Amino acid sequence: MESGVRKEDKPPPSSFNLPQLPPSVKPGPLRKIIMVASIAAGVQFGWALQLSLLTPYVQLLGIPHTWAAFIWLCGPISGMLVQPVVGYHSDRCTSRFGRRRPFIAAGAAFVTIAVFLIGYAADIGHLSGDSLTKTAKPRAIAVFVVGFWILDVANNMLQGPCRAFLADLSGTNQKKTRTSNAFFSFFMAVGNVLGYAAGSYTHLYKLFPFSRTKACDVYCANLKSCFFISIALLLTLTILALSYVREKPWSPEGSPGEGGDEEEEEEATGEAKESVPAPFFGEIFAALKNLQRPMWILLLVTCLNWVAWFPFLLFDTDWMGREVYGGDSSGSADQLKMYDRGVRAGALGLMLNSVVLGVTSLGVEALARGVGGVKRLWGIVNFVLAICLAMTILITKLAQSNRRYTTVNGGTHLLTPPPGIKAGALALFAVMGIPQAITYSIPFALASIFSNTSGAGQGLSLGVLNLSIVIPQMLVSVASGPWDALFGGGNPPAFVVGAVAAAVSGILAFTMLPSPTPDIPSNKRAVTAAFH
């Protein structure tokens, strides 16, 4: 069904509406988009360190296992609250430095503070009275928890405005919007590779001899050194991007950006005067209430997509150690050794995944053209994801049926799985980098495109989209354990749910997700919104 909406037929005032870039505004040059997108490498470097190094560090500080689950819930909780809040305020920021840059700079500063607290938690705890002879270090734990929560909040402060800044730089050009999000995905992959590489190098602390102290052993010192590099990378990229890419100040009386004639400016001013701001949470509820159908469908497809992704993202290395290698993190010494070998193999798989993710991100635009559009591309890769998650069951069964043992001095010892099974598992990690690249770019590009079409603020639109990511994460985190226990434990039951969710997400992407409107030449006075 198609509907034409002329420019003078303004939508009713809504808390979700802000003056947007007029169609005549030219998008920013590609070099500026790349500079802003490169900040993702610094952000993702820190995330990769969290995934690869923080769990053992948590155990080193003596944090009880029951508390650890609450600590890791910080990510989705902060994402659910912080990104919409930051998006809302960045849409309305009237700073002379621009709308997005102050929030990006503040996020980078808070990341620096958080990383310092995490890295020096053991030292601060010892100086505050923690005993080196006791397993639990309560003061160090308190410092770590505060730093960890600040880190997740700061990362969310960074990512939302970064993507909104990219949308601003892309203007109403849909190709530039897709390209900017593809570059963001690419630099996320670069950050992953650098983070996993730094985390796997056990002698990095030698570059910073002062990092090793009485309270901080070699592992702790290595983590601290990795975070030093993380801070340096993030601050360097942020300072370069924000110094090179400038924003014009925004005011409620006018439309942001350049270009546009007087009639457009008067119209934007009139819309701004008609819209009376409500309190923040009133704005959020009104935004959800006034979401147009394309955005609701996008949220649904994205939600199911992340229900599929999170079981694997949370338990991928555990699956390698437990199901593929046959180890057990709480078993005998032999089982623990095999589990550790499997986890290290999983870390190699994550490295391969990141490489494929980066390469695919650079080809998203070409892939979309090849299959007939971004919605078809997203639908296809969701089916690829479903097949990959289903293949984990096959690999698990093959590994179990080909389990090998050897006898040494009368004792039975577990051997690593056959080379073919290891290669198959690593290939699975690599192939999943393809749908992951699409997941990291296309939904955000579509949200920006639908935002331009509906007249919604970019920051708040992307913050609302983030709700469809963090809610599945919380759901999977809480429900996956009991669900797996119903089937005797292990990771495959959660992967099966993920495969079904990916398949349903693919079907909805093909059948219900609207196709974006074509780019409109700047000399046309009418704006047509067509969804099929």
TrEMBL record:
Subcellular location: Membrane
GO biological process per UniProt: sucrose metabolic process
Keyword Chaperone: no
UniProt region (Disordered), positions on chain: 1-23, 249-274
Stretches with biased composition (Acidic residues): 259-269
Lipid bilayer topology: Multi-pass membrane protein
A Pfam match: MFS_2
Pathway: Glycan biosynthesis; sucrose metabolism
Record's compositionally biased regions (Basic and acidic residues): 1-11
Alphabetic keyword roster: Membrane, Sugar transport, Symport, Transmembrane, Transmembrane helix, Transport
GO cellular component, one term: plasma membrane
MF-aspect GO terms: sucrose:proton symporter activity
Recorded superkingdom: Eukaryota
Record keyword Lyase present: no
PANTHER family: SUCROSE TRANSPORT PROTEIN SUC1-RELATED, SUGAR TRANSPORTER
Stated family: Belongs to the glycoside-pentoside-hexuronide (GPH) cation symporter transporter (TC 2.A.2.4) family.
UniProt-recorded name of the protein: Sucrose transporter 3
Gene name of the record: SUT3
